[in-house]
Amino acid sequence: MEQKQRFSVSAAPHIFARSTTAVLMRDVLTALIAPVVAGVWFFGWNAARVVLICVASCVALEFLWQVLMKKPVTVRDLSAVVTGVILAMNMPSTAPWWMLVIGSAVAILLVKQLFGGIGDNFVNPAIAARAVLLASWPALMSGSAYVTPFDAVSSATPIAIFSQTAEAVSSVTANAVIPPTMMDLFLGRIPGCIGEVSKIAILLGLAYLLIRKTVTWHIPVTMIASFMLFTWIFGADPLQGVLMGSVLFGAVFMATDYVTCPMTHTGQMIFAGGAGLIIALIRAYGGYPEGTTYAILLMNLLTPLIDRVTRGRIYGEVKSRA
User: Fold this and answer.
1) In this structure, what DSSP letter does residue 53 have?
2) N or C: which end of the chain has fewer CB within 10 A?
3) Cα distances (Å, whole numbers) of residue 193 to 36, 55, 133, 140, 178
4) How far apart are CA 183 and CA 199, in angstroms?
């Protein structure tokens, strides 16, 4: 009588999980709904235009590249959509369409596909694209590029306002506009990039990601705590500092990228702590008012080293190779 096979022997890993790439990306997109809606609410349909162009460009470029290179088409995993939305959230609502397409090409083709596709890029594609655009067209990525529908708020970003003295502000602004209040900073009634202005929307997205266990607390909490600590050490208001600029959005949606952050919780806290320190240093002593982009990019480059230092020893492995 033929015996039935009772056990199936296969190679490791032996842990089964239902969290596919598409599921994880869908969770991130759901969390991004609040910042996107807030961006459209504050900046109008121009913000929606930016999101649509970035998403369409990222998806189209990834599809065309994979077809031309005769590779499996992976646009259904939604990673290109996530890259497009995050890139759009890092752009001013006044960004011209051609710059959005170039940014999408940098993110998808240069950073992601040329290094092997999803899982093989060594830096966050959306952040790298923003850095390239900021270096190439600074006038279109800062300053007068930031607009606000609220007449009572200055067109300058809060970081630019609070980094100047009262005399400097009054000499630059003809109407001596009053700086935004803490409530303005929290709700998003300020100039800035589409996704960074509304802190309450970002926190709603973080809460959803934590509830769904898409991310853990280690990177966002450590990065914000590190930034606030060093901001306080450098003599500035830590709460005001975290409510200005893109540090909160970066901690929640960019530093937590699975591919470019360390694998261990210890490594993630080192990664996030370093990013918070760099942002605080750039704001306090650098000539550039906002350092989130460069801080995360630098820590992305250090991720392999952090992984090597913090990874656990493999059970049963020879010590020289563990």
Assistant:
1) H
2) N
3) 11, 16, 13, 12, 20
4) 10
Confidence of residue 174 (pLDDT cuts 50, 70, 90): very low
- HSE-up of residue 186 (Cα within 13 Å, Cβ side): 5
Given a contact cutoff of 8 angstroms between Cβ atoms, the answer to whether 55 and 85 are in contact is yes
Model pLDDT for residues 218-275, shown as the tens digit of each residue: 999 999 999 999 999 999 899 999 998 899 999 999 999 999 999 999 999 999 999 9
Farthest CA pair distance, the chain: 95
Q: What letter does residue 9 receive in the DSSP assignment? A: -
Q: Strands, DSSP E only, in the chain?
A: none
- 109/73 Cα distance (integer angstroms): 14
Q: Contact 307/263 with Cβ under 8 angstroms?
A: yes
101: which 2 tokens?
């397409």
What 3 state SS string does 182-216 have? HHHHHHCCCCCCCCCCCHHHHHHHHHHHHHCCCCC
Peptide bond into 13 cis (omega under 30): yes
According to DSSP, residue 145 is labeled G
Report the chain's C-alpha Rg in angstroms.
21
CB 72 within 8 A of CB 113: no
The tokens for 274 are 């370093």
Q: How far apart are CA 6 and CA 8, in angstroms?
A: 7
